[in-house]
């Protein structure tokens, strides 16, 4: 029987092929933009300043201009990148200031951490918010997506989607969204397809008059067909979460 507690990961070392890429796409894009704008500006400014300084010192103005043209772009890009990093740090400090904790459905500070690649801290903050307010369905959705999209951790993502259905008593719209996310996670993560059956059956029964109920019925038919081909189940885990029959789904 699976645990609804997420697997604790060691973020200091990741398994090969798992986790976010080493390349920070946002930082790379910022560097390229700085290069496009600041290299020509730094070249011209460096040549002028270098020539002026060397002339005042009684040295070769041409050599000063040449040296300034080489160093100017480096200095200009360093200044721009340094200022943008400083602005980002100030923004994070402002969000983390005392008395600026996240309110219901407003997690700007944690989303800022995600935007800056601070995934471990973001996970810890979301888990802390859930401990303080387990009825907030949005938290489970955000944390599940963080594990899926940024940490490539399908097991933990599915765990949090399920826990959102089990623990937060979500409203209709959020229930449908969490169910769809969980089912898609099972399929994309190649997890036990039998785990999707009770989720889909519950959604189809509770919302038979909605478009989503029809979607759940069609998905459930496909899942049952796959389960029939695989002898009743097609995976590696047992599921007894929301909507599961007595005794849970078939164990492998």
Q: Which descriptor suits the 3D outline? A: elongated
Q: How many strands?
A: 0
pLDDT averaged over residues: 74
Give the percentage of residues in beta strands.
under 5%
Order of helices and strands: HHHHHHHHH
Helix content: 55-70%
Sheet/helix structural class: mainly alpha
- Cα separation of the termini: 11 Å
Main beta sheet: strand number and arrangement?
none
The residue ranges in which pLDDT falls below 50 over 5 or more consecutive positions are 10-15, 17-23, 92-104, 234-252
Radius of gyration: 27 Å
Number of helices: 9
Key traits:
single chain; 9 helices; elongated
What is this structure, in a nutshell?
By secondary structure, this protein is mainly alpha-helical. The protein has helices spanning 25-56, 61-95, 108-115, 119-132, 137-149, 154-167, 172-188, 196-206, 211-229. It contains nine helices and no strands.
